[in-house]
Structure formats: C-alpha cells, structure tokens
Amino acid sequence: MSPGSTPSSGQSTCFRARLRTAAAVVAADPPLPVRGDLVDDLRALAAQSPPEATLVVFHSSVLYHVPTP
Prior knowledge:
Layout: H1 9-28, H2 38-47, H3 62-65
InterPro entries: UCP012608
Protein name: DUF2332 family protein
C-alpha cells in the first residue's frame, strides 16, 4: 500500500485483528518500565531478571549512553 492510500476492508480487518492480538499479549505480561540512570543502574536491574528472560533496553538514544566494554 502506498503512502496516503486507503487500506481495503480486508487489510483493515487483518490489521485490527493483529493489533488486538498484540495488545492481548502485552496485557497478559506487561513490560516493566524502570526509571533510572542507564550507566549506574542497568547492571543491577539486569541481574534481577530470570536467566531465561530476554532483556530489552529501549530508548531512542540508549546506545549513546553505554560505554564501550
């Protein structure tokens, strides 16, 4: 679909179904947003997560603040 075009009825239905499914997944196991200093707090916070968990750190400029190992 090109920018500015209107989705067909089938595309809209599919999109809404996918959006509802995604919302249900997040509602069932919501993320834990934590405010803190990335450099000072991340290591201790990551240590609290279960070993089988996939740790996701997100911010639009997060890598700028992480020192090179």
